[in-house]
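pinging the channel bc i need a second pair of eyes. not urgent but kinda urgent?? the chain im working w is below, pasted from the shared doc
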Amino acid sequence: MRENKNYYKKKIVLFLFILTIIFAILSLYGYYHTKISDPIQLWSAVLYGTVKLFLFAAPLSAENPGGIFYEFAKWLAPILTSAFIFTQISNVLLHLKNMFLNGISRKHVILFGDSPVASALLTNLLADQESYRISFVTKQFLEEQRKNKLERKGIASYQLDFENSDQNEIRDLFLALHISSAKYLFFTGESDLENFSLYASVVGRIRPKQSVVSFVHCASNTVIGYMEDLRPAGVDTVYFEEEELTVRMLLGKKAVQERLFSSFSRLPLANAGKEQAASRQERVDEGEEPTVEEMDATILPPHVLVFGINSLLFPLLKKLANDATLSLQKNTRVTVVDTDAGKKLRALFPVQGKEGIFRALEMDSLELCSEHSSYQKREQIRAFLKSMEQEERPALFFLLQEDVIENLKVLQLLRSSFQEAPKLFRNSSAVVLSHVLKEEGEEVETFGDLSTVLTEPVLIRASLDKRAKAFNEAYNKAAEAAGMGEGSSWNSLSYVRKESSRLSASHAAVKEAFLRQYFRDRSDEEIRAVLSRKETEFRSLEELEKKDKPAFRERFRHFLKENPELDFLSRLEHKRWCNSYYAMFFRYGEKKDESRKTHPCLIDEWETVIGEKFDLCHPEYDLLSVFALFKEV
């Protein structure tokens, strides 16, 4: 409704402006044509007099009659001019107010670059409960109407082309932005190269007064490498693209997480009744406590069926390799369904066999022949779904095809066999399909709208980053206790190591689900208390590490054996870490080299890690991720 009011207001002002000009010309022509015979001088006087009306200077004296049209124009012209001047003054004051409030806010975010991503992000930041203060910088010309609209929403707007501006202009902009006090910087230009140029122009000139995180919209690993070389100390940089954010949002859905965690539904219950009567080791020896192997035997990772091979597939598989690491021996099974699926997978993943993503997931494909009719393809899918019904694994379905009609056909097939299984449906059209997709007792989640992924929980993930930083701090303390030095601060970590910490923090939900099921007769508070006691015991072992490393190794192995749930989760963390590195195409190598993607601890055999490779791979770090669980960050 407000938009309509502004529209009609502009129409009325334009009508009055044109009417005023017409009345002024008619009345002044009527007055001057009897006094001036030269046509050029006549029209010059008429037009000059019309301009003077708008400049608060009447062309005719009060005693000279100009007629009713002149009187109308004489009053209306300065009123319109005053309205214009007051509007401009109010716009300047509004901009100054936004600039001041942004400067004193601790939740000030700055967006550099104009694009659909920037527009969606601006809308979501305004609606966020965090009440962010926002500045927006673009090199494109900002139309007055759009600039005023942004300012009225509280967004301080600026126009500057860094490449064609001198140092003084850039310095003045940064002073106006209070850039050193900003909390988040977003680089959301139209392309990777534009964002690289913006990033290079900005980050080298700032001296942050607080920890600042920059988010760069970039898909190219090559460009990311160059930006990492430019990144100064004190600036944490996160790179994102729509596909990765979409997958992150999908795997964060409650229905998806519940399906993943249902893999632990058959986990044996911890024997809490004899906790005071005997040591954990005695109960394990007597068969009263489940062993690591017995726990793992009960876990059934899900079977994930993916329809469609496109740009969403690799981010999905990469995320599943980390977040769906649920068992020590069994990987999550993923079957990809598409026409000529095998050929497309080979094109997408040149390295197959037991390398890369194929080492982290149990990969399979259902080949739909391109020469078959739609009916034959449908029957082939139906037969495969029939075979899936016999599996005990929980099922999860991702309908990634860009053709919405094809996704609807698949959904119809799934409903006959897997009514209750979660289905993630890609709707890349602008058509709302909620009336088609909603059926009683069915979990169907739609995605495809850019605005749904450019949100605080998906893009910024402040809580996850706090957990990742807390883990890195614990890692540094353990490294110092082991005599390996102070470790690295968060902002000095490489991009790969930061991502590794974030992936570990993301997997915390899996470990917490395991413990809730294992200690299902206890509350979160009680589980936290158990972990706290065990952490205290472990910290006493760290003191031993400084004095006698062989004795520490032996005591640590005994500590895990006494606590099979901690042993299991430590092993699971190592497996998750391996899987996440496999998904980044790392492989085993004698030396750690991020550029060559090699690491000496990419070893699947836990006995080797905790045995001959103990001092190299430090399995105690895997245990630290367990002690970080159930803690308020």
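so Confidence is low (pLDDT under 50) at residues 273-278. and The two ends are 43 Å apart (CA to CA). — does that match what u expected or am i reading it wrong
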